[in-house]
């Protein structure tokens, strides 16, 4: 009873695909795996670093315009640059990196891709392989659990009630064509001394059905009263 499993790994080969496509000899497999992790971490760190720079520039701007941009950010879900997943395809002389992103505002700036390529080249140290980075915008951003988790994180860091943030995240999914959603937050909610878990569910969520396409994410939120954990399941469709 109660044997838990990651919904994505459970459905690999049926409704979920691998995010890395390459072949390696058994002795070189661990090196390839570490290289993939370095690439993904480097891209996420680059976006986080540039997002902070952008926010610092906004603080220096006029106070009235700052309030307007802040409110817009709140309404749009604060998901200015949320990566849903990164695909890595390796060939003999080329590494193809496809970044699936919700709102690619930062990476569309002039020289952003070239700068990211230089950072990746330093991190990977691939002399014989060239890097090819492509940006792919997600068609329905609010169907992605990572974007909803980022939205909830933004709201909680701004002292919004966790129940209000969860309900608003579920409301955002109405814009997307989905059949069910579940949001769970655990930790010291509202700064209470005893940690607990709260959950909101809407629609169907057949976790044991393999042919059901379910997207899932687990996201840590660092607040002033400790780390909270957010888990989001989205039932997209059934094949």
Automatic annotation (TrEMBL):
Its main location: plastid. The keyword Ribosomal protein applies. It is found in: Plastid, Chloroplast. Residues 50-74 are annotated as: Disordered. One of its GO terms (cellular component) is chloroplast. One of its GO terms (molecular function) is structural constituent of ribosome. Keywords: Chloroplast, Plastid, Ribonucleoprotein, Ribosomal protein. Residues 152-234 form the Small ribosomal subunit protein uS3 C-terminal domain. Gene3D superfamilies: 3.30.300.20, Ribosomal protein S3, C-terminal domain. It holds the Pfam family Ribosomal_S3_C. The keyword Chloroplast applies. One of its GO terms (biological process) is translation. Part of the 30S ribosomal subunit. Belongs to the universal ribosomal protein uS3 family. NCBIfam families: rpsC_bact (TIGR01009). PANTHER family: 30S/40S RIBOSOMAL PROTEIN S3, SMALL RIBOSOMAL SUBUNIT PROTEIN US3C. This is Small ribosomal subunit protein uS3c. It comes from Bambusa arnhemica. The lineage of its organism: Eukaryota, Viridiplantae, Streptophyta, Embryophyta, Tracheophyta. The gene is rps3.
